[in-house]
């Protein structure tokens, strides 16, 4: 499977840092099924892209979140044509070095009427699943001051966004998991204090939903997206190691869950 590819047609606005992010994404409109649909396009400096593999991380995390029944906005790759840049983008944005990167850009469908969630709005198993997801996939950027979540109150759905600082999977972390220990920086996670205070008996079962998804994760689903990213001239960071790591976590799912629970006792 692959992400749909759209052409940017109209520019709506640029998100500022006080909108909750740090990458100043653009809100643009694309033609999807003969309708103008708004997408949030993430823009990264080439130097940051080459160092942190931001676009690759965004794509893989969007796909993997769905494997764990977590909500994420529909994802796509969006092209900024020369005509779009020259004739549609505001003049002050046309010389941005992030615009000069001609590669397809990661985008997620804009979801209206959302707000930052409060823990009181969420179900315990959702809180546990998000925490486990971030721990498994090394997402270091779901903090109290920057939760990177959106809550749709009418539908009571929690959407996860902004995963460029994730998938820091290396041999050291892999070996630590094999030894039933995780070095995930849990103290920084927005949900860690809540889960840590949970009664021990409840902690034993709070990750059951996530564990069931982990047992059944379809790792090969990533292959098509990896091929698409390479065709778009993106470098994959330790893709084979990522698949090996996920396969181990799937096979040794109880070991991973044990490491999560023990980490809540520290």
Short summary:
This protein is of the alpha+beta class and 266 residues long. It has helices at residues 46-52, 54-67, 82-87, 97-100, 124-136, 171-178, 192-196, 200-203, 208-215, 222-231, 239-251, 253-263; strands at 5-14, 26-32, 35-41, 75-79, 105-109, 114-115, 149-152, 157-160. It contains 12 helices and 8 strands.
Could you characterize what this model shows?
The chain is of the alpha+beta class. It has two domains: 5-109, Phosphorylase Kinase, domain 1 (2-Layer Sandwich), CATH 3.30.200; 129-141 and 165-263, no CATH class. Helix content is 39%, strand content 17%. It contains twelve helices and eight strands. The chain has helices at 46-52, 54-67, 82-87, 97-100, 124-136, 171-178, 192-196, 200-203, 208-215, 222-231, 239-251, 253-263; strands at 5-14, 26-32, 35-41, 75-79, 105-109, 114-115, 149-152, 157-160. The strands form two sheets. It has a five-stranded mixed beta barrel with strand order 1-2-3-5-4. A three-stranded antiparallel β-sheet has the order 6-7-8, with no helix packed on it. Helix 2 runs antiparallel to helix 10 (222-231), helix 6 (171-178) packs parallel to helix 11 and helix 11 (239-251) packs across helix 12. The model has no long low-confidence stretch (mean pLDDT 92).
